[in-house]
């Protein structure tokens, strides 16, 4: 390979790579990609999981050169050409794209050479996935404490998420976590991995910083959103933040919960039965705090509401759940936080 073929994306360009959302070709095996990746990255691997496993065993038993030779045998002929064609198609569609493997080493070097042999010269990321991941971890640690945070709080059903989404200077954690942050907050699709969530969060902070925002609004959350853990550096940064409490009448909150958790949610599932099963499963998570008697009562109302598709019955169990589960829990948590945080009450009419 000539010097001209060794085109690198250097660390000083990492920020621009993420904030401008340049296309990224991820050459790692699918199993590696599934553990964590970057928003918009496309996985077209040099080796599939089985091929990578074979090469790994060969490396342990016979050394690097034997493993390299095996890799070239496994990815040769028609298999090699099919993958080259896929990579060429990617860069024809995204000529400003870059590529990487785990450390920016042999795998990405081989693909870079094969592409150059086909008159396609592409930059590879110096340090690969590992360097980009390190960059985003460091960025999160540096940026989170630098913003002036305002926490939007309020009882369940106050449409706090909608208010967050209406602001350019905000971070929507529930969107990033793909979860609405409650026992009923899951969607039909799975949540991202913890690594994917942290990567996206860091990128969003980079974008807000580049846009010149100093104050950021964020919804009040616990330590977890579904299976996702809120990074400690962000939680620390929010401890002394101002709090704006959104207030709405109970009737409006019931309507909002019905809209989001019943009407819209039922349309998001592949079938009504799957939605019904998911809703009942969510209710079961509240059983311990509700107590067996109240849980059984709500379960019966919910089951009947689902069987009859009754809006009235749905709103009945929603009212009971808000009154006996969510409101007492939220009021207790807000009281504890208000001991050290400035509170501003905001009445929402929408």
Describe, in short, the structure shown.
The protein has 350 residues and is of the alpha/beta class.
Unreliable runs: 339-343
Structural class: alpha/beta
Share of helix, binned: 55-70%
Oligomeric grouping of the chains = single chain
Characterize the main sheet. Answer: 5 strands, parallel
Round the mean pLDDT to the nearest integer and report it: 93
What is the strand arrangement across the widest sheet? 1-5-4-2-3
Q: How big is the Rg?
A: 25 Å
Total number of strands? 12
Shape: elongated
User: How many domains?
Assistant: 2
Helix-strand sequence: EHEHEHHHEHEHEHEHHEEEHEHHHHHE
Total DSSP helices? 16
* Range of strand content: 5-15%
Distance between the termini: 63 Å
Task: Summarize the SSE layout with pairings.
Blueprint: E1 8-9, H1 14-19, E2 24-26, H2 30-35, E3 42-43, H3 49-62, H4 64-74, H5 77-93, E4 98-100, H6 106-116, E5 123-125, H7 128-143, E6 148-154, H8 160-165, E7 170-171, H9 173-177, H10 194-210, E8 215-219, E9 224-225, E10 228-229, H11 232-238, E11 242-247, H12 250-268, H13 272-284, H14 287-290, H15 292-308, H16 311-337, E12 343-347
Parallel strand pairs: 1-5, 2-3, 2-4, 4-5, 6-8, 6-11, 7-8, 11-12
Antiparallel strand pairs: 9-10
Helix pairs in contact: 3-4, 7-10, 12-16, 13-15, 15-16
